[in-house]
């Protein structure tokens, strides 16, 4: 009997928005509703298994046979999905079905509006709101649930909604724990009322769930209902690799990630000896919607002795490998392990090191065997891999091998050049790897710092991602060849770009000119020099070898961090017509103005801004009038 004390609740605004999106926008793959509800049922059973092990005193000690059952009621226009999992309390029902507690809700919904319908389906499961996909096919959804820790005499909770902004909650009598979801289908969704159709969907999406999924078969003659198992009901990772088909691996990946795409590659390993465990690790083809929300959880599914322990166990992988999906099944960890104990466990640390090396090896092999496939990976996850240089000093060498760059000679913004190929293409006498960091690829490509490098056909890596400047603090050398920023002073460059005009006599001619410039600029500059690294530019500014770079100063400034004032080295191009003209000016005020213009335009080219642009403009206008 239903309790008369029915309570009406209003959905939170985010749920209303999501339900509207579900009902009116997602038409490309309606069958995902069954995948999501079965996935939730499986999770509920796994949670109860864990709770019975971890907190046995809260639960009855009777034999537990987990199962998911599906009934198709054609005459009633209903599909029923039941499980004997952990169930929910009234508070959990309100929290889980009436609100979205996950961080990033707003950004998720905004993202959903801007992508194609075909791609929206996969985000539903990834965001953890798969239950709401029920409303794609249902005009009413009823959820009967009772928590496993409740006494047999206690009531269950009935949640009902038509997905129109509100839901009701009331109590009902039941002795059984678990959850039963009744979907009252829309008249347009009759195709889901055929048993064969439901079986087909389950075989497609949920065949590898380790919990039996049964469907009822009604015999009209005998009037007896029998239950038929649909899925394999054996954990995929526990099977012999030789017996698992490629398609099985791909479908299992889709099941655990809710991704509609096949994975890029995977690795399935069984390890015996001091440490016994099974790992099944996947590299996705594309990033999840929340990959850049570092506060959101990620990680592997953890099983101990084939028993599910926790989702999103972050302890087994470093943060820069947060895109990796999969499971780890350990024989050595205790069944009642918690996240806190896991963090300090020596077994966890060993597994973390081993799994990290395995993933990096998978990626390195992919980069050697299938350059096209690896390039797809790099275009999506390259920024995250770059984080590894700072986070993982132990594996810096192999991470460096995975890096890809744009450069002068690559000729496009796409990062395709490996460090190995850069070294193979180095010119005779070159003993450094040259790079330039900038705000954008175009800005880097057109930088005056590159003029002599382009002329001498010396390649320069062009780094324009925000993380690049920070990354280069950790990437100091590769195969014992040091990196050198072309925007920093570098005495070793002289020999490489030797020019017939670059001689001592020529230098003496300009000594007086340089001294005059130093007196004018005084403490605004660290030094003034003659340079032969320029062709079309009269002057540039450089930072000294150990000083903070311009790009790093920009990063600090954007983050609101205090930065030391940069004193630049001004380098003058003696062959430039403007420099030759300035050199001949006798009027001290005019000469001074021209020198200040040279310096300020060099700073403007380097930083993209000036401390006082108005003075620069006034000075320039004065010279133009002259």
How does this structure look, described?
It holds the Pfam family HATPase_c_3. With 626 residues, the chain is of the alpha+beta class. It has 4 domains: 7-229, Heat Shock Protein 90 (2-Layer Sandwich), CATH 3.30.565; 236-369, Ribosomal Protein S5, domain 2 (2-Layer Sandwich), CATH 3.30.230.80; 404-495, 3-Layer(aba) Sandwich (Rossmann fold); 499-625, Four Helix Bundle (Hemerythrin (Met), subunit A). Helices cover 38% and strands 20% of the residues. The chain is built from 21 helices and 22 strands. A 9-stranded mixed β-sheet has the order 1-6-5-4-7-3-2-8-9, covered by helices on one side. It has a 5-stranded mixed β-sheet with strand order 10-11-14-12-13, sandwiched between helices. Strands 15-17-16-19-18 form a 5-stranded mixed β-sheet. β10 and β11 form a beta hairpin. α9 (346-369) packs antiparallel against α10 (371-391) and α20 crosses α21. The radius of gyration is 33 Å and the shape is elongated.
Spell out the blueprint of helices and strands.
Elements: E1 7-10, H1 13-25, H2 32-54, E2 68-73, E3 78-83, H3 90-98, H4 105-113, H5 117-127, E4 138-146, E5 156-161, E6 166-172, E7 178-185, H6 195-205, E8 213-219, E9 224-229, H7 246-257, E10 265-271, E11 277-283, E12 300-304, E13 307-313, E14 325-330, H8 339-344, H9 346-369, H10 371-391, H11 396-402, E15 406-407, H12 419-424, E16 432-437, H13 441-445, H14 451-455, E17 461-463, H15 468-472, E18 477-478, E19 481-485, H16 493-496, H17 504-521, E20 525-530, E21 539-542, H18 550-558, E22 568-572, H19 577-583, H20 588-607, H21 613-625
Parallel strand pairs: 2-8, 12-14, 16-17, 16-19, 20-22
Antiparallel strand pairs: 1-6, 2-3, 3-7, 4-5, 4-7, 5-6, 8-9, 10-11, 11-14, 12-13, 15-17, 18-19, 21-22
Helix pairs in contact: 1-4, 9-10, 9-11, 10-11, 20-21
Family: Belongs to the heat shock protein 90 family.
GO cellular component, one term: cytoplasm
Binding site for ATP: 36, 40, 83, 88, 96, 102-104, 126-131, 179, 339
């Amino acid at each position: 009997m239903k309790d008369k004390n029915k309570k009406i609740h209003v959905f939170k605004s985010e749920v209303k928005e999501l339900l509207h999106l579900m009902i009116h926008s997602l038409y490309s793959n309606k069958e995902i509703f069954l995948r999501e509800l079965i996935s939730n049922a499986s999770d509920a059973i796994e949670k109860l298994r864990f709770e019975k092990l971890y907190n046995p005193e809260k639960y009855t000690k009777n034999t537990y046979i987990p199962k998911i059952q599906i009934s198709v009621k054609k005459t009633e226009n209903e599909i029923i999905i039941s499980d004997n999992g952990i169930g929910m309390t009234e508070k959990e029902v309100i929290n889980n079905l009436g609100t979205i507690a996950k961080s990033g809700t707003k950004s998720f919904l905004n993202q959903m509006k801007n992508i194609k319908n075909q791609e929206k389906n996969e985000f539903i499961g990834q965001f953890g709101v798969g239950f709401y996909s029920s409303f794609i096919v249902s005009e009413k959804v009823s959820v009967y649930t009772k928590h496993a820790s409740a006494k047999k005499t206690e009531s269950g909770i009935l949640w009902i909604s038509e997905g129109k902004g509100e839901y009701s909650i009331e109590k009902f009598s039941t002795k059984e724990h678990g959850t039963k979801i009744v979907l009252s289908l829309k008249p347009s969704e009759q195709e889901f009322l055929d048993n064969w159709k439901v079986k087909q969907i389950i075989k497609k999406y949920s065949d590898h769930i380790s919990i039996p999924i049964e469907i009822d078969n009604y015999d009209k003659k005998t009037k007896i209902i029998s239950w038929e198992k649909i899925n394999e009901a054996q954990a995929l990772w526990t099977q012999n690799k030789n017996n698992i088909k490629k398609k099985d691996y791909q479908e299992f990946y889709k099941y655990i990630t809710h991704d509609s795409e096949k994975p890029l590659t995977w690795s399935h390993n069984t390890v015996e000896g001091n440490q016994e465990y099974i790992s099944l690790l996947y590299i996705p083809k594309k990033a999840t919607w929340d990959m850049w929300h570092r506060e959101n959880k990620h990680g592997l599914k953890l099983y101990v002795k084939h028993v599910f322990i926790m989702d999103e166990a972050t302890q087994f992988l470093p943060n820069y490998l947060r895109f990796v999906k999969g499971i780890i099944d350990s024989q050595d960890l205790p069944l009642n392990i918690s996240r806190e104990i896991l963090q300090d466990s020596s077994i966890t640390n060993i597994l973390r090191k081993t799994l990290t090396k395995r993933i990096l090896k998978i990626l390195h092999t992919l980069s050697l065997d299938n350059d096209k496939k690896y390039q797809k990976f790099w275009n999506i996850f390259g920024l995250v891999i770059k984080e590894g240089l700072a986070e993982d000093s132990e594996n810096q060498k192999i991470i460096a091998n995975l890096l890809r760059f744009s450069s002068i000679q690559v000729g496009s913004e796409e990062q395709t050049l490996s460090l190995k190929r850069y070294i193979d293409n180095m010119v005779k006498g070159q003993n450094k790897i040259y790079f330039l960091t900038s705000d954008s690829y175009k800005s880097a490509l057109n930088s005056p710092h590159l003029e002599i490098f382009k002329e001498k056909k010396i390649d320069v890596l062009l780094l324009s991602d925000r993380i690049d400047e920070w990354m280069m603090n950790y990437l100091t050398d590769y195969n014992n060849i040091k990196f050198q920023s072309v925007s920093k002073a570098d005495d070793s460059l002289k020999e490489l770009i030797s020019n017939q005009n670059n001689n001592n006599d020529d230098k003496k001619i300009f000594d007086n000119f340089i001294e005059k410039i130093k007196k004018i600029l005084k403490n605004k500059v660290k030094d003034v020099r003659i340079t032969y690294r320029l062709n079309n530019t009269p002057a540039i500014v450089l930072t000294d070898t150990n000083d903070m770079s311009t790009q790093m100063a920009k990063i600090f400034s954007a983050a609101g961090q205090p930065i030391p004032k940069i004193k630049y080295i001004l380098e003058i191009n003696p062959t430039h017509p403007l420099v030759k003209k300035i050199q001949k000016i006798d009027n001290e005020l005019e000469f001074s103005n021209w020198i200040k213009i040279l310096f300020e335009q060099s700073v403007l080219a380097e930083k993209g801004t000036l401390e006082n642009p108005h003075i620069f403009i006034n000075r320039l206008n004065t010279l133009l009038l002259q």
